[in-house]
Write a structure and sequence with these properties.
Elements: H1 2-19, H2 41-49, H3 69-79, H4 101-109, H5 129-139, H6 146-155, H7 175-186, E1 201-205, E2 212-215, E3 224-228, E4 233-240, E5 243-248, E6 251-256, E7 260-261, E8 281-286, E9 296-297, E10 300-301, H8 302-317, E11 323-326, H9 336-345, E12 350-357, E13 366-369, H10 381-398, E14 403-406, H11 415-418, E15 424-431, H12 438-441, H13 444-464, H14 472-477
Length: 487
């Protein structure tokens, strides 16, 4: 009988663990996923320092995670200084062991939050924006209906509406946004009054022949609300984590910052006859990605910089018949082996891997590598050397940084070069942690210029080494001329 009771108790604990998946860590405003440039950094830090919001045991805040009813009750309860001691509740699905049980009891007593007709509370149900507005409205006397509370929050600068003027009541809310709304409710210094948001920085969409998706939020998971054509003028408010908050013809949304430029791009030029050089394919390999940020310096991560430059590089190839394919075109992780195999799988003719360097701020300059040993699958040593030379020359021509040379440390023994089956080079465009190089690395106009330089370096290789005179018209397409012969 005793054994049976223990088995039942163990089963109950296992079930409970499914419905209480998180264990909040000790409050700390230093989270690995909420840096100083995060759009909600100030508000999250404010709530954490007051003991209203918590992170998790892995020192993360999970700002993009959806907010549950239990989490909302706990945060609001702490904000109202309610008694949060865990206890039994009148709800069938909230036991004493639930971390928010005390706050749920107190909030329900005050009529701020309620359960469902079947006697449940549904603590793990994800909160919607309209429900969030109603909870804040009831808690702080800002409205007792969704519409009244939503309007009050917008009028007071606590919340901002979506493009088109709606509040988005049915959209689910994430921890970063909930933190912003709650911090603005408690501290008026965080609020944004009507007219205070300035979209005064003028930039231009630079996508070549493609369109740019404008989304309802900062990320590809948010819905597309508009498509912007090449050279469209946009007003930029803020930029965070690679996304720009923009306004176009009174529509407000978010676009990927990597497709914006400060100088007005030219119109998309007609492509040369498709028969010229259309058999060529260039593989562009932006290094790192996802959980692998690469080098870090001055608030920038290598993975984002090289992806940005890679997209610019591809935009120039999109103007001519030469095919260009990217090993990654978003923040994903691709293994070194898959990068090396990408060229052969996609009929590539050359492979260019994009990187920035880092050495604790102790070095600067540009260098380019190729694999200088002949191997079973690497019979392209001379071709790779020539490609590296032309890329290095164009980089030096574009960003006047220290010339660290081609293959300065020997054989260029990198997996993406060593395991490749086509002529391949790896460029280190500068040191991301150098006070000198960062002036170019962190500048969008300079990054676009580097994309063009790498495009031209590949043309130089095809023309001078491979003897492809059919690429000559493409220099004129981008307003450039062929280089001197260097190999």
């Amino acid at each position: 009988m005793v054994l049976k009771k223990w088995i039942v108790l163990l089963c109950f604990m296992l079930i409970a663990s499914v419905f209480v998946p998180f264990s909040p860590a000790k409050a700390s405003s230093h989270f690995t996923d909420v840096g100083n440039t995060h759009r909600a950094h100030a508000e999250i830090s404010y709530l954490v320092n007051k003991g209203i919001a918590n992170g998790y045991s892995d020192n993360r805040f999970n700002p993009a995670r959806q907010v549950t009813r239990a989490e909302a009750a706990a945060m609001l309860g702490r904000a109202l200084n309610l008694n949060g001691s865990q206890r039994n509740t009148p709800f069938t699905d909230v036991g004493k062991g639930n971390m928010a049980s005390g706050y749920i009891v107190e909030m329900s007593k005050k009529g701020i939050i309620s359960g469902y007709p079947d006697g449940s509370f549904q603590p793990n149900k994800v909160l919607k924006r309209g429900e969030m507005a109603l909870l804040i409205g009831r808690a702080f006397n800002m409205g007792t209906t969704v519409s009244a509370a939503s309007k009050s929050l917008m009028d007071k600068g606590i919340a901002q509406g979506l493009p088109g003027g709606s509040f988005g009541t049915e959209l689910q809310i994430i921890r970063a946004d909930f933190s912003v709304f709650l911090a603005r409710t408690l501290n008026a210094d965080f609020r944004v009054k009507p007219g205070e948001v300035s979209f005064g920085t003028t930039m231009y969409v630079n996508t070549g022949s493609d369109t740019l998706n404008m989304r309802s939020g900062p990320g590809t998971s948010h819905r597309v609300i508009s498509s912007l054509k090449h050279a469209t003028v946009v007003g930029v408010g803020t930029v965070s984590n690679g996304w720009a908050h923009v306004k176009v013809n009174n529509v407000i949304g978010y676009v990927s910052y990597s497709y914006l430029t400060t100088s007005k791009p030219g119109s998309v030029l007609p492509s040369p006859p498709p028969s010229a050089a259309s058999d060529l394919t260039v593989i562009i390999d932006p290094g790192h990605g996802a959980h692998d940020p690469g080098g870090v310096g001055y608030g920038h991560q290598e993975k984002n910089v090289v992806l940005n430059i890679g997209r610019h590089m591809k935009s120039y190839f999109d103007m001519v018949p030469i095919n260009a394919k990217m090993t990654r075109n978003s923040d994903v992780f691709v293994t070194l082996q898959d990068r090396a195999k990408f060229a052969s799988r996609n009929d590539g003719d050359i492979f260019v891997s994009l990187h920035t360097n880092a050495l604790n701020g102790a070095a600067n300059g540009q260098e380019t590598f190729y694999y200088a040993k002949t191997a079973a699958n690497n019979t392209n040593v001379q071709q790779s050397r020539a490609l590296a030379i032309y890329l290095q020359e164009r980089m030096q021509e574009t960003w006047p940084l220290r010339d660290r040379g081609v293959n300065p440390f020997g054989y260029g023994n990198f997996a993406v070069l060593r395991e490749n089956t086509v002529p391949a080079a790896l460029v280190e465009m500068g040191f991301i942690d150098s006070s000198i190089d960062i002036k170019y690395i962190n500048n969008e106009a300079h990054r676009k210029a580097m994309g063009k330089a790498l495009f031209l370096g590949t043309l130089d290789y095809f023309y001078h080494y491979e003897g492809r005179t059919d690429v000559l018209p493409y220099y004129k397409t981008v307003g450039a001329t062929v280089s001197k012969k260097h190999h």
